[in-house]
Design goal:
about 725 residues, mainly alpha, two-stranded antiparallel ribbon, two-stranded antiparallel sheet, 27 helices, elongated
């Protein structure tokens, strides 16, 4: 034996010992990992196992710079143009204060609970709307696609309203404002006021004739309105530039776009309260017509406004919350944003009703003056005896109270002949009951107010800049509801997708800047979003409460928030909200069948609006809008259920979501007895790191031979067989 053989033998022995130590060490670590994977459903957080995975997800997905930025983004999305031109309009249309009570009830019963639900699933699963509902139940993945379609339809016409605001904004830098007085028409002999303007008002005329140059029906396209086309293009350019980098670019804009409108609204409220008749308008707002609360239409429109106001079903709420940390208190966010939205709507409605009261007072004074002249004429002609007129009343400068006294006396004395006199009662309530239809409420009521303000161009600039900011905040959330799910699902570049989406929307949106474009805005507003949104929210509620399981969902919330949510939400999600949503759906369908769809057309000769029914092709478009919005739900369900797309093809049917990555796995997910408590489905349970080639087959199932991270990896098998002795390893 060589003299150094003992040294060599000692070195070999040391290497063997070290190898055995390494093996035992690896075995112990593997055993620890195995035990953790076995108990993964029972522990509160699988931090050790998922540390690497969590860090990868955090690095891959953008995040909000601060909690304030996130809250402002949600407030900016929920508080939009609808708070100014839709909520006050519905309030005026549906009985003033009587509308506030159904709205508040529905906000508490379905608004806040469902808003909380969307915030929770988005924050927990950290995907867009497509990924979230595919994660919970692949057969219901069509809910996310339906949300994207509705978002796209709404974005088409919503940005048109921003374009209208930009037009008025550009016209506000002049003194006097262009809608201050009716234009004069000159001919060879004399000058006279434009008849259409004289029959209506200066602001009404400017809106319908100068801004929209509206046609008399939806069938008369009248060609493109080039002024509105340019404004629409500018609106889409702004949206595209703000959204091209996602929340990194749009989040910073929220600080201004979300806070500036409140400053303007408060200033407008103070100024409006100083106008004559504003108190009458506010009194009208808070005086409920209780009989209208029995009409299903009021509740249906209140529910629709709740959806629009909070952004339920759009996917924007889910998209924004998906950029949050998992332990964020989304319950606080849901309650805070919901009540900020409600009080903003009330604030805007106070301003609008104060202005409407002022406007009604002006019209009423004009009515009294005209009818007083008619009475004086009748007195001179002898149609009315001078003896019946009280001596203290001077008809040349009569007050509203004196006029109403004279009117009542004449009506009693001339019972049979009174209708032939054509006298008007000139009641201010009659003017307040005349609801300004649709978007014209903001552009007519507020523009009327601003003509009476000192430094009116300044107020006009501030107001329409506020409208632009309100609209952009909602548009950011709407576009995010399209971009985020598509990027998460198909892994396309966000910049390219944003440009393509905005360009396509602008091209389609040209139908809204025709002379008949306002009628198409009404059509899309009534049919592209209302009923489809209701169906989407119902399916969301069913997916969480019954498909996934309300008990498991509550446990998820407890794990995520660190406390159990109030039992109120359990009963709302499981019983009350689904029943109320189904009732509203049935009521909406019945109402749609009973009342023929139509729109309010502006008739130039009469200088007033007239209800017209849609032509046959218009009815077809209305039906197509609803069908296209809901079609993804049954389409995806059939594809998943019938396995129409091969799993290996790399398409939608074989995609499931694992936090920050996409995994391919078999489509048939029935029978998986696992919870999303820790953000995992069975195929995503972490497995111990034994090595790529170490896995076992389940006895009697030779076909279940898959990799460790597949459906039947070791962690998943052993979780189902906790009593298996360790020696079987």
């Amino acid at each position: 034996m060589p003299k150094n053989s003992k040294v060599v033998k000692r070195e070999l022995d040391d290497e063997v010992i070290e190898s055995v130590k390494d093996l035992l060490s690896n075995e112990d670590s593997a055993d620890d990992a195995f035990k953790k994977s076995e108990l993964i459903v029972d522990v509160q957080e699988e931090k050790d196992i998922d540390a690497e995975e969590e860090s990868e997800v955090e690095d891959e997905r953008p995040a909000w710079n601060s909690k304030l930025q996130y809250i402002l983004a949600q407030v900016g999305f929920s508080v939009g143009l609808g708070n100014v031109w839709r909520f006050p309009y519905l309030c005026q249309k549906n009985g003033g204060g009587a509308y506030l009570l159904p709205y508040l009830i529905l906000l508490l019963v379905i608004g806040i609970p469902l808003f909380f639900l969307e915030l929770s699933v988005g924050q927990r699963i950290r995907r867009g709307s497509i990924g979230v509902w595919n994660y919970i139940s692949p057969k219901l993945g069509g809910i996310g696609f339906a949300s994207c379609v509705v978002c796209f339809f709404v974005a088409l016409y919503y940005n048109v309203i921003i374009g209208w605001s930009l037009f008025y904004f550009s016209q506000s830098f002049q003194q006097p404002l262009p809608w201050d007085q009716c234009p004069l028409v000159k001919n060879a002999s004399h000058t006279f006021v434009e008849p259409e303007c004289e029959k209506s008002s200066a602001t009404t005329y400017y809106w319908y004739r100068e801004a929209l140059n509206i046609s008399s029906s939806i069938s008369e396209s009248g060609g493109l309105n080039w002024k509105m086309t340019v404004c629409l293009l500018a609106a889409w350019v702004v949206v595209c530039l703000a959204m091209i980098r996602g929340i990194q670019s749009s989040g910073k804009i929220m600080y201004f776009s979300s806070l500036f409108p409140y400053v303007v609204l408060i200033c407008f409220l103070i100024r409006a309260l100083l106008l004559n008749g504003s108190v009458d308008g506010i009194r009208h707002m808070f005086t409920p017509k209780l009989e209208m609360m029995l009409e299903p239409k009021v509740w249906r429109e209140a529910a629709t406004q709740v959806f629009f106001a909070l952004g339920l079903g759009f996917g924007g709420v889910i998209a924004f919350s998906s950029y949050n940390k998992r332990d964020n208190n989304c319950h606080f966010d849901a309650v805070l944003v919901s009540f900020i939205n409600f009080f903003t709507s009330v604030l805007a409605t106070l301003v609008v009703f104060a202005v409407l009261g002022f406007k009604a007072n002006v019209i009423n004074e004009k009515c009294i003056a005209e009818n007083s002249k008619m009475i004086v004429k009748f007195l001179k002609m002898g149609n009315i005896s001078k003896d019946i007129i009280p001596h203290h009343i001077n008809l040349s400068s009569v007050t509203a109270e004196d006029y109403h006294l004279v009117y009542d006396i004449i009506q009693k004395v001339k019972e049979e002949e009174f209708p032939a006199l054509h006298l008007n009662s000139c009641q201010i309530e009659d003017e307040l009951n005349k609801a300004v239809q649709g978007t014209g409420l903001a552009f007519i009521a507020f523009t009327e107010a601003m003509t009476h303000f000192p430094a009116s161009p300044f107020w006009s600039v501030m107001f329409f800049l506020m409208l632009v900011n309100l609209g952009l905040g909602s548009m950011f959330g709407t576009i995010e509801g399209i971009i985020t799910p598509v990027v998460d699902t198909f892994k396309v570049r966000k910049e390219i997708l944003t440009v393509i989406c905005c360009l396509l929307a602008f091209c389609i949106g040209l139908i809204f800047v025709q002379r008949s474009g306002n009628y198409f805005v009404t059509m899309f507003d009534d049919y592209s979003a209302t009923l489809p949104l209701l169906i989407v929210v119902i399916l969301e509620n069913i997916a969480v409460s019954f498909v996934y399981g309300i008990d498991k969902f509550v446990e998820d919330l407890k794990d995520m928030l660190g406390f159990a949510p109030n039992r109120y939400y359990y009963y709302m999600w499981k019983y009350i909200s689904p029943l109320m949503l189904l009732s509203l759906l049935i009521a909406s369908i019945v109402n749609m069948g009973l009342s023929p769809p139509g729109y309010n057309a502006w008739i130039e000769d009469k200088a007033s609006e007239e209800f017209l029914s849609y032509p046959t092709w218009g009815l077809v478009v209305c039906i197509l809008l609803m069908v296209l919005a809901i079609l993804p739900v049954p389409a995806v369900f059939v594809i998943r259920h019938c396995n129409l797309i091969d799993n290996s093809s790399g398409n939608l049917a074989s995609v499931t979501y694992k936090r920050g990555r996409v995994l391919k796995e078999p489509v048939n997910l029935e029978g998986d007895d696992a919870s999303l408590i820790h953000g995992k489905i069975p195929s995503e349970m972490s497995s111990p790191n034994f090595g790529k080639n170490i896995y076992r087959k389940q006895s009697g199932s030779p076909t279940l031979d898959t990799a460790p991270n597949g459906r039947y990896g070791i962690g998943y098998l052993m979780a189902d067989m906790p009593d298996m002795p360790e020696s079987d390893l």
